[in-house]
Amino acid sequence: MTTTQQESHQIQILRSCVSTPTVSVSKKTNNNDPQVQAFFIHLLRDCASNGSIQQGKALHGFLLKSNFIHENAEETIVLYNHLAHMYGKCSKIDYARRLFDQMPERNVFSWTVMVVGLTDNGFFLDGFKSFCQMQNHGVIPDKFAYTTVIQSCIGLESVELGKMVHAQTAKSEFSSHVFVNTSLLNMYAKLGYMEDAVRVFMSMNQHSQVTWNAMISGFASNDLNLEAYNWFLSMRSRGFGPNIYTFASVLKAIGKLGDVSKGREVHHHVIRSCLESNVVVGTALIDMYSKCGSFSEARSVFEKNFARYSDTNTPWNAMISGYSQGGYSEEALEIFKQMCLNSVYTDLFTYGSVLRACVDLKRLCCGREVHGRVVKINDNSRVLSVNNALIDVYGKCGCIEDATKVFERMEERDVVSWTTIITAYAHCSEEEKALDVFLQMREEENVRPNQFTYASVLVACASISLLELGCQVHSLVCKAGLGDDNCVEGALINMYAKCGSMVEAESVFMKIDSPDVVSWTAIIMGYAQHGFAENALQLFRKMEESGTKPNAITILCVLFACSHGGMVDQGLFYFHSMKERYGVAPEMEHYACVVDLLARVGRLDDAIAFINDMPIEPNEMVWQTLLAGCRVHGNVELGKIAAKKVISVRPEDSAAYVLLSNTYIDKGSLVDGLSLREVMKEKGVKKEPGVSTIVVGGRVHRFFAGDQRHPQKEYIYAKLEELRERMKEMGYMPDVSSGLQDYGMRGGGVVGLISL
Question: Which ranges does the UniProt record give for the PPR repeats (predicted)?
Answer without folding.
Answer: 76-110, 208-242, 312-346, 414-449, 516-550
